[in-house]
Amino acid sequence: MPKIKLVCIIDDDPLYIFGMKKILEYTSLAEESLFYKNGQEAIDGLTDREKMGEPFPNVILLDINMPIMNGWTFLEKFAEKDFKEEVKIFMVSSSIDKEEVDKAHDNSLINGYIFKPMTIEKIKTLKKELEEGF
Fold this sequence. Notes:
alpha/beta, about 45% helix, Rossmann fold, single chain, 5 helices, globular
């Protein structure tokens, strides 16, 4: 994957968002970042971006447990939309439930599962894997 232009973070935790902004700034994972508080806000926002011809995320870091629309429902809606752009989606969660992890690995839309807390090292590793085309 070439240079990541836009990363999208979908998570409802304000402390996580604050930390991710700092980590993304420090690691330069992407040229720009986009944040949504839940799956519904993300589906609506991404749909609008595509309609308006605005840049679409190359990478989505998706939380599982959120109000209004969780990560699993987001994935269902995302698949229904049939967005034109290719995007790498990574589940990011504090859940270590084997069932959740297995469900993520079995979902063809998900490229990986990252355990919270998110760290600079985890983002650097992700960046390297994405640049190498893992």
